[in-house]
């Protein structure tokens, strides 16, 4: 009969700081004391554990991903070995957390089907990204705040990637005489070619019929080109007279900062782009 597994026996995998490990392995190649080999061997001897570490780690590689260490042994010993390793190679020492506003209506779009989008961002940047749990069961107060935790470089990269995952929605009012049919072959062709969703809202008492084009931030050129072609198709020579609108979600507490002193930031953007920018009335 097979001997029963020791209930005290366990193994644990955890990440360590890549830069710190590189420095340690470099020291070993230069034959200095307490390089990688020495350090892990001493921890193994002192704690009676087995440790697997990436001894062939490529020094100075482009990858920012923190590598894994694996420790096997008795539960208590593994904990002691991990504490000893982390006291020297802990990734958390320069860990930062960034909170960013992403409109709660776009959270599921950013997270992606089965969480695929956000898992990919976490893997590529080595960060942990958290969306507010309260939105699932709280109908009244939805939170826009998304937090990203990790190394400073990774956190900034994750922020950029999340921004790129946001949808870009452009809308425009159509002159009364124009017919709009989202299922027309031309509209369908533009949608498929530029990977856009096109929809039309019927006129109301206050507004004329509205066209809405939805694409993604990481594909801005396609959204612009597709929208221009759509307007040409719908309005012909009037296309250049139709104004296009988009909305950004910016937390009210950041409005003053965004506007700049005496609205200087907004004036600068308006001069450069010719776009009109309206902030909601603070009252």
TrEMBL record:
SMART domains: KH (SM00322). The keyword Repeat applies. It comes from the Eukaryota. Keywords: Developmental protein, Repeat, RNA-binding. GO terms for cellular component: cytoplasm. Signal peptide: none annotated. Residues 8-90, 94-167 form the K Homology domain. Transmembrane segments: none annotated. InterPro entries: BICC1_KH, BICC1_KH-I_rpt1, BICC1_KH-I_rpt2, KH_dom, KH_dom_type_1, KH_dom_type_1_sf. Gene3D superfamilies: 3.30.310.270, K Homology domain, type 1 (3.30.1370.10). GO terms for molecular function: RNA binding. The keyword Repeat applies. Belongs to the BicC family. This is Bicaudal C homolog 1. It comes from Nothobranchius pienaari.
């Amino acid at each position: 009969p097979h001997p029963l597994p020791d209930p005290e026996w366990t193994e644990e995998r955890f990440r360590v700081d890549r830069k710190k490990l590189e420095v340690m392995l470099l020291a070993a190649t230069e034959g200095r004391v307490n390089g990688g080999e020495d350090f892990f061997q001493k921890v193994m001897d002192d704690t009676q554990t087995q440790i697997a570490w990436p001894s062939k780690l490529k020094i100075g590689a482009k990858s920012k991903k923190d590598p894994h260490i694996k420790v096997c042994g008795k539960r208590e010993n593994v904990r002691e070995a991990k504490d000893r390793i982390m006291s020297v190679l802990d990734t958390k020492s320069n860990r930062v957390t960034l909170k960013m506003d992403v409109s709660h209506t776009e959270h599921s779009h950013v997270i992606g089907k089965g969480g695929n989008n956000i898992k990919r961002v976490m893997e590529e940047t080595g960060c942990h990204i958290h969306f507010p749990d309260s939105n699932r069961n709280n109908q009244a107060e939805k939170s826009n705040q998304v937090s990203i935790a990790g190394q400073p470089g990774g956190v900034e990269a994750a922020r950029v990637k999340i921004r790129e995952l946001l949808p870009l929605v452009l809308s425009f009012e159509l002159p009364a005489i124009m017919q709009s049919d989202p299922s027309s072959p031309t509209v369908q062709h533009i949608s498929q070619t530029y990977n856009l969703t096109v929809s039309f809202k019927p006129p109301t008492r206050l507004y004329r019929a509205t066209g809405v084009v939805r694409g993604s931030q990481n594909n801005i050129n396609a959204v612009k080109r597709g929208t221009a072609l759509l307007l040409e198709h719908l309005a012909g020579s009037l296309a250049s007279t139709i104004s296009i609108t988009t909305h950004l979600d910016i937390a009210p507490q950041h409005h003053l900062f965004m506007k700049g002193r005496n609205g200087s930031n907004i004036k600068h953007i308006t001069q450069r782009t010719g776009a009109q920018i309206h902030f909601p009335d603070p009252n």
